[in-house]
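Trying the structure run again after the queue cleared.
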Amino acid sequence: MKKLSIISLGILASLQWANAQTISSKKWSDLFSYNNVMAMKEDNGKIVAAAENGIFYYTISTGEITKLSKANGLHEIQITAFDYNPQTKIGLIGYQNGSMDVVSPDGVTYIVDIPIATGYNGSKKINHISITGDKAVVSVGYGVSIFDLKKKEFGDSAFFLTAGVYEASNEATIVGNRVYSVTNTGLKSHEMNTTFPVFTTWSTDMPGAFTHIDSESVLSFSSANTAYLFNNGVSTPLSQTFGSVKDVVVTAGNIIVTDQNRIYTFNTNGNYSGTVSFGEECNTATSAGGKVYGGTVLSGIKDEANNSYKPDGPYFNYAYKISLYGENQFLVSSGGREARYNTVLSNPKNPGFYFFNGLEWIYPSMFVGSTTVFNVLDAIANPSNTDEVFFNNYNNNAGHGIYKMKYNSGSKDFDLVKYYDLGSPNNFARRPVGFTYDDQNNLFATMSFMDGGSMGIAAYDKATDEFLIKNVGISSDAVQKPVSYEKLLWIPLARTNNFLVYDYKGTVNISDDSQYLLSQSNGFSANSVGTISVAIDKSGDAWIGTDAGLRILSNAASAIKDPDPKVNPVIIEQNGLGEELFRDSSILQVEVDAGNHKWVSVEGGGVYYLSADGQQTIKHFTKENSPLPTNSITDIKVDRKTGKVYFVTYSGIVTYQGDVADVTSDFGNVLVYPNPVVYSNFKGKVTIKGLAETTNIRITDTAGNVIHSAVARGGYYEWDLNNQRGARVASGIYFVLMTNEDGSDKATAKIAVVN
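Done. C-alpha cells:
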C-alpha cells in the first residue's frame, strides 16, 4: 500500500537560503511531476531518487513516499545531477543554472559560488555529482571541482583547457585519493594533490569518447555502447553489447548498466548476472535487497514486477493554463507560444493536457505515443456535465482544431467523442486559442489566423454539435483566451494595440452580434504592441494587461458602450511623485480573489499581490524569494472557496494558501495567527482572516483603551503591532473588536504579544 506524506526524516530542521532567507513555508506546495527519475541511491531499505524538480524517498517495506522540492526546502528547479551518501545522510543536488543544494539532517544549504573557469562562456549546468565520504567531485562544462561536504565549500578545481578550448567532464568519481573523469576524448585521472588543478599533469588512462562512470567496490565506465571494468590501469569490456548506454552504477556487489529500457547486471568481477526489462525507457537503475529498481523517464521508480513508485503529480512539468472546477478538480493545458502568437513552441514530448480528479492525477492515453502533434493551449470542462471536456490544438500541423472528450471514471481515462476541424482551409489557418463558458453554459472559443489576417469567434451550437465560425474582421490575427462577463466576451489581442469586446447578445447565434474595439485613442500606452490578459473584478472593472503596462476600464460593461470609453493606469505615489504601476511591463495574467485583491503576473518580474484598488503591494513573490519555479507565470487561478492560489509556469505548478476565502458581508471563521506573537520567533505582521468584506476593527488593551483602529476590506487584515503613535505595543493581551459594514454582525478575538 503506497502512502504519501510531506518529507519527514528530520532533514528540514533548519532551511537556509544563501542570505538566511527562508523561501518555503507551510503555505506552499508543489504540483510537480516526479515521473522522470534521473538518479537514485539506496539507503538501508530506502531509495532516494532525484526527478526534474525535486527528490523523493521511497521506503520499500512500507511503500511510504516523502518528497522535497522548492515548495518545502530546496532552492531551485531543473535538477541535472544528484548523489547521496547513506552513511552520512548527506545529499548534493546540482541544477541547470550551476547552483547546488546540500541536503543534510541539519537542513538545506544553498551553494551559489561554484568556481567558473576564466574565459569560459558556456553552460553552467552541473553535469554530474559523485560523493565519496565527505568529498564530492562535481563535473561541469569546463572540468571538475572538489566539494567538501562538511565545510560546505569548494576545494581545488581542474579546468580541462587545451589549446584555448575547454573540455567538459561528462562524469567523474573519486577512488581513494584519485579522481577519474570521463570526457569526449578519454578516461582521465589525477591524484588530489598540489598539481591537481594543472590539467597538463592529468593522465589519459584510455583514449575515446566516454559518457558515464561510477565506483564503489570497483570502477566502471562506459562509451555510447560499451561498458568497461577498470582495474589497475587495465580496461576490460563487459561481456554484453549495448544499444545505447544511459547510465553505469556501481553498488557494493554489482555493476548495473542501463541500456534504454533494459537493465544489465554484472558482479564486481565483470561477470554477467542477468537482465531486467521495465517495458519503457530508463535513465538509471540501482539494486536494493537483491532486486533491481529502474529510474524511468515516465513512471518514477519501477521494481522488477513493473510496479511504479513516485509522488503523485502530472505526467510532465510543462504547463501553460489551468481550469478549476468542481470539488478540487482541474485541467492543465501544456502548450505554449513564442511571442504570444504565431510561433509554436516545440515540445518533443507531445504532452496534451493533464487532469486532477480531486484525488489523483489522470493522463489521457490518447496522448501517449500519438503521432498527432499537440500544442494544447486550453482545456475546459462543461459546467453542466463536468465529464465532458473540450480542448484545443493550436499546432500548424494536421490535427489542429478542437476536440471533445468524455471522462470515463471506471477506466480513469478520456474517450474521444468528436474532432472539429473548424473548416480550416490549411494547417496554418483557424487555430483555436482559448475557451470560456458564460453563465448560461454557452461555450465560446477564440481563433487566430482567420482568413484575411483577422481573428475569429467559434460559438458551440449544442443542437447541431458544431462550432459556428465568425471572422471578426479586425486586422489582428493573434488573440488570447476570452473572459465572459455580462453577455460580453472580453478578448485581448496580442499582436496589435487593441482590445476587443464582443457582444454575442446572450446566444450562440452569430448573425446579430456586434463588437467594440479599444485602442491607443482609448488610453493604451503608445509603445504597446499588444494586449495580453484581462480579468473582471468584483466591482465590475476590467483589469487589462498589455505588453507595456496595466490599464483599467471602470464599470466596464456599461462603459464599453459609451461613445469614447477610457482605460486608465493605476497611479501610485513614489517619493512624493505619481508613478504608473507596472509602466512598460508585460502583464501576463491578472486574477481576482474573493476579497477583490489582485494577483498580477509580470513577465520576468514574478507575481504581485495588490490591494483591491492596486495602490498597495501586499506581497511580491519571485523565484528568488519564494518557491515559484520562474519569474514568468503564464497563468494564475484562485479557488475562492479555499483561498488557494495556483501559479502555472512552463517549468511546473506550485500553490500558495492565501488568506482570503469565501468573503461575504458577514464574518466567517475568524482566525488570528501567529498567536501568541513572540518577537524572538516572529517579527512580521499578525494576520486576522475570516473577516467580512468590509470590517471595522478596534484593538484595545485590557483597560479598554483603543490602541489601534482600521477599516479592513477584502476579508483579512494585517496588523504591524504598532499603536496609533506608530510605536510597537508592549507585551500583554490585546482584544480585537470587529463589526461588519452595517453593524449587523460582530466578532472578537484576542492577541497575546511577547516582546
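Residues 1-21 have pLDDT under 50 and may be disordered. Worth checking whether this holds up in the mutant runs.
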